[in-house]
Amino acid sequence: MGLIIAAALVKFYITTPIYYVNDKPHIGHAYTTVLADVLARYHRAMGEEVFFLTGTDEHGQKVQQAAQQRGLDPQAHCDEAFRRFVDLWSKLGISHDKFIRTTAPSHKAYVQARLSALHAQGDLYAAEYEGWYCVGCERFWTEKDVAGEVCPDCQRPVQRLVEKNWFFRMARHQEWLIQTLEANPRLVFPESRRNEVLGFLRQPLEDLCISRPKIRLSWGIELPFDRDYVTYVWFDALLNYLSAVEERPGTWPAALHLIGKDILMPHAIYWPIMLKAMGQGLFGTLLVHGWWLMNGRKMSKSLGNVADPQALMERCGPDAFRYYLMREMVLGQDSDFTDGGFLLRVNGDLANDLGNMLSRVVKFALKNLPSPLSGPAEPSGSEARRLRAQAQALPEQVFAWVRELRISQALEEIMELVRALNRYFESQSPWKAMKQDPPAAREAVLVAAETLRIALVLLESVMPGKSAEGIARLGAKHASGLEWGGASGGRGELAFEFSEGPALFPRLGDAPAVAAPPHAATVKPPAPPVAALTPLILRARIEAARLHPQADKLLHLDVHDGARVRSVCAGIRAFYKPEELAGRLIALVANLKPAKLRGLLSEGMLLAAEGAGGALELVDPGPGTPGEAFAAEGQPAPAGEITLEDFQRRALALGGGAVLMDGQLLVSPNGGKLRCGQPDGSKVR
Ligand code: MSP
């Protein structure tokens, strides 16, 4: 986005909480991270120097227990488990600058150095402590907290424990914290959360226990001055925000910390006091968001109602999922995930209002008007001028909402322009105007395309992939930034070279975005393919894999197709190691004419999607027996061998997270799809 570049480079340091490595990422984690990503992208677009941090919280009792149960060393367990977050963030297009892990040696050394300094300056002391302890939450509770001897947070039984521990002198900073919060309305945002913290601070604050004896818990950072103890996991975790930027002077303290409401107190009480004691400046703002509920209820593993971001993304692709998360949650409130609400947003805002508008404009122009299409940036019609004024005012409004941290309002503002455009296009009806007044039809198309271009540029931070795809379809020659008609301030020319493509946001619930109900209407491909040329795509299993002795790009595989083991050569050597492939289910094009590749027989081809930079990711046929075929509805059954050229005539691509052939979803007899985590629109070959 070309936009007002601030004279002095503003630094914008944004963080997410670091996620407990044991949890499977869910919609709540995805939400905070996408929100941080969207803010980071908008601030980059505003010309600021952004540093975006996320990561995993890897110490503590739960990790130690989980590793024990798996018979693994805790570090080995973490090294495996943290990948779930890294993988999901990559699928969601998260643009973080650093992923921190609290087991990284640099973080551990940082925590120890800070502890030594606090110890040396008398901020830490040892004392006997007796209290009620919850193993699950790893914390002590006071007598009045544990009515019935159960933990007020997790409802599990608590135990009575007496032990020596190390304490951080927190109580002495209580007055300072109250004054700081009162003097600084943006420190905790929204205001209701600041009031909650101030309310809590009306009671006397206790010092914070920052150690755990190793006899009880060894998986933590050792206290540098008492080797029998490790650091309390929150004290270790909060310091990630500083340790991550130790090597980047000037980044701290311009921080925006994003957190959910359940972790408000450690962030609004321990953290500012820790910073004060360490002589560090305070963070800028703590942005506290609400919870995602599921059909009105709290999500929990035991209720089995946890919304899985992976599954949602498979239905609509990462961009629409990001849009849904951002549009749906209003800052400060809880948000309810319902299937109906999800469909309504994705189909209503994206498939109908935005995607359909784009395809109507492009189709109409390509059919009726010259290409490239150009004309004056200054429209003559009064309605067009109103629309242009709205589009011109939009960037400032959107950025103002972003600065206010209200992304859902920013999106509402953009969608309002898109809806106004829909009304404009309808009232102009260029398909009618074409006969009596061709210049008017031409103006309607130019105005519509320019309005769409600006809306899509403003949506890039939320939907980077789809916005870029939409912008590419418009093929604007006159500008790429946010100004109407380019930098000439609307006095120049508009010029577009449109190109057609599949629906930008296929409607969910209709074929082919999700598993097609048996008689759903599907779009017929232009020329009916002939049976003799239809590819046969089977679920198959790799039995063994090895390097091809003669070709440095190929692997040589034994692939079981349900009936027999075939020899297959696949060009995936740069992306997969042979040892990770044995036992893997893949999608095999099984009726290709066999060929010899550098001396070895190849009896078929593995389907893989092409990601950014040409990286290949194998398509996953889902669980089931080898030999099951995947076909598109209405396509003739494969009859006999086909050549590679025949196969290449078919357009295979991802849509709704699954493989489409010539725009139609490939499904197995029981509705299974061929999935892949690459962005929608990726080519499959
Ligand atoms: N490890 C700590 C954070 C340490 S930060 C120095 C932690 N991790 S967590 O994985 O349990 O939670 C991380 C974030 O996910 C929190 O901000 C929490 O609010 C958020 N969410 C967890 N469940 C959620 C929902 N159902 N909805 C929205 N966000 C929720 O706490």
Brief synopsis:
The protein has 685 residues and is of the alpha+beta class.
CATH class of the domain at 338-496: Mainly Alpha
In the CATH hierarchy, the architecture of the domain at 338-496 is Orthogonal Bundle
Assign the CATH topology of the domain at 338-496.
Isoleucyl-tRNA Synthetase, Domain 1
Shape: globular
Termini separation comes to 33 Å
Uncertain residue ranges: 1-7, 510-528
Mean of residue pLDDT? 90
If you had to describe this structure to a student in words, what would you say it looks like?
With 685 residues, this protein is of the alpha+beta class. Among the domains are: 338-496, Isoleucyl-tRNA Synthetase, Domain 1; 531-667, Beta Barrel (OB fold (Dihydrolipoamide Acetyltransferase, E2P)). A hairpin with a 2-residue loop joins strand 23 (595-597) and strand 24. The chain is globular. The protein binds 5'-O-[(L-methionyl)-sulphamoyl]adenosine (MSP). 5'-O-[(L-methionyl)-sulphamoyl]adenosine (MSP) is lined by residues 17-20, 23, 28-29, 31-32, 57, 237-238, 240, 259-260, 262-263, 291-292, 299.
Question: What's the structural blueprint in terms of helices and strands?
Answer:
Layout (H helix, E strand, L loop, with lengths): L10 E10 L6 H19 L3 E9 L3 H9 L4 H8 L1 H9 L6 E4 L3 H16 L3 E11 L4 E3 L17 E10 L5 H10 L4 E2 L1 H10 L7 E2 L1 E3 L8 E2 L2 E6 L1 H6 L1 H4 L11 E6 L3 H14 L7 E5 L2 E3 L2 E2 L10 H20 L6 E3 L1 H30 L4 E4 L5 H22 L3 H22 L1 H7 L1 H22 L4 H11 L18 E4 L40 E11 L7 E6 L4 E6 L14 E5 L5 E3 L2 E3 L2 E2 L1 E3 L5 E3 L10 E4 L11 H5 L3 E4 L2 E4 L2 E4 L18
Parallel strand pairs: 1-2, 1-12, 2-3, 7-13, 12-13, 14-16
Antiparallel strand pairs: 4-5, 4-6, 6-8, 9-11, 10-11, 14-15, 17-18, 19-20, 19-22, 19-28, 20-21, 22-25, 23-24, 26-27, 28-31, 29-30, 30-31
The structure holds 5'-O-[(L-methionyl)-sulphamoyl]adenosine (MSP).
